[in-house]
Every structure is written in structure tokens, then in C-alpha cells.
Amino acid sequence: MASFNASIRESGTANIIDISGDLDAHTSIELERVIQGLIDKGRTNIIVNFSKLNYISSAGLGVFMSFIDEVRSKGGDIKFTNMPNKIFQIFDLLGFPLLYEIYDDEHKAVEKFQTTASS
Which of 15, 40, 78, 107 is 20 to 30 Å from the Cα of 32, by its Cα? Predict the structure, then answer.
């Protein structure tokens, strides 16, 4: 069975989900649970840090698509950071950069949420 972990930490107005391992059909349920938990608590400024992710399947990609409308309708967003090149290529191929903001550096994503909150 694939190894996957998702942990949450806070930075300013954002909640950062650090994901690691393999995000596939078996492990995507864990990420869904984490994101839904944040939404249920009204924490909709979500940053996903991909720095330790080795692999993502279509089921993993689908998790983000399944939550983006709900998060944005509640005034939040999902931003991506620290994406390894092989993961970014998959997102890029599927047009995700048109739908999501992708940052090289987590601090830039945090700053973007804080700028949005103060304006």
C-alpha cells in the first residue's frame, strides 16, 4: 500500500497542508478528510505544500477539483507551493495553472492571502 501523509500548520490567515509520499486512489481519501475538516472549521485559505510529494494520480488531482468551488464560494482559495518539477508537469499538462495559483515559495502564497485579507 502506498505511503501518504498530510499534516496541517497555520501561518497568518492561511492553513498549510504539507503532503508527502504518494497521492493516489487509496490515499486521496486522507487528503479529502483533511481539506473537509478545514472547510468545516471555516478555514478556507488553504495552501498545499508539495515539496515531499513523490507521485500524484488522477484521483489525487480530483481531490483539489472537488473542493475548489466550495472553498472559493466561502471566500477562500487553494494555492499550491513547492511543487517538484515532475508533479508540476502533470498539473501544467492538465491546465491547473489556469485554475490555481502555483508558487515556488510557500511564503509568497502566505503573503498573497494576507494581502487579500487586508484589501
Answer: 107
